[in-house]
Structures are given as C-alpha cells and as structure tokens.
C-alpha cells in the first residue's frame, strides 16, 4: 500500500531578498508565525512575524523572516525530471514533439486540491475549480509531460504578470 502522507513544506523569498545575491533569495522549510519581542529602554514591543524555519544537519535550527506574498506550498509531487512542483509555480506541458502544442500552466491551490490552470486564466482569483483546470496528480504529470520552468514571482516574462 502506498503511503498517502506528504511533507508540509514551504518555500518563499526572504524578507530582505532584494539586498541578497539571487541564489540566496529563496528559502525552504516550515512556515510559522513567530512572536518577536523587543525590549528597548524598558518598553516591551511585541509583533508577530512570518518566518520559515529550517533544520540544520547538526540538529540546530535557522529562522528566516520572509516576504509572505511569495509563500509557496510544496505539492508533494515532482515533474517529469524529478524537480519539486510548488504552488505558484509555472509548468509547461511538453507531451507533444510539436512546440506549437506546448502550453504554460500555473500551479494553484483551489477547493482543497492542487490544480494547474492555463496561464491565460491564472490572473483571476478563484475559489472553485473550473472545467479547464487539471488536477495535479502523477497521472496528469505523465500525461501532459509537465516540466517546471519557473514561478510567477521571478518569471513574469512567462506568466505575463499572472499573480
């Protein structure tokens, strides 16, 4: 019997991503709201910040303050090349040899499921699955030959700004 559990993992850009080299923009780990307490000059300041926690190989932990607008959940699936598929990712269907048949899709979480939506419809915020949406599952990944080609935050030239 196949194990139906999956890792609840997220990736997101760090809060200060604009100040960092591109290879340090994204961080993967576990999402949490962190209660930050500062005590400057005997005044207690509390605020809740969005964070990603990562576990180190030595058992330690790192915490990164994040840009919550770029939060992406791992779908638990990989593309045809073994690359992880993330929410807000852009995937290309390459089931045909003819490049004219290749199509770009955005991965979204709708109605309790991950689906891939044709990019021409991806700009509209939705809460219900539509007939042109396809359920993101291993069978459809193989059928469509899905390959991760980017995300809506870093690849606006692909998405046309579809957020």
UniProtKB/TrEMBL annotation:
<dbReference type="InterPro" id="IPR019096">
    <property type="entry name" value="YopX_protein"/>
</dbReference>
<protein>
    <recommendedName>
        <fullName>YopX protein domain-containing protein</fullName>
    </recommendedName>
</protein>
<dbReference type="InterPro" id="IPR010024">
    <property type="entry name" value="CHP16711"/>
</dbReference>
<feature type="domain" description="YopX protein">
    <location>
        <begin position="48"/>
        <end position="158"/>
    </location>
</feature>
<dbReference type="Pfam" id="PF09643">
    <property type="entry name" value="YopX"/>
</dbReference>
<dbReference type="InterPro" id="IPR023385">
    <property type="entry name" value="YopX-like_C"/>
</dbReference>
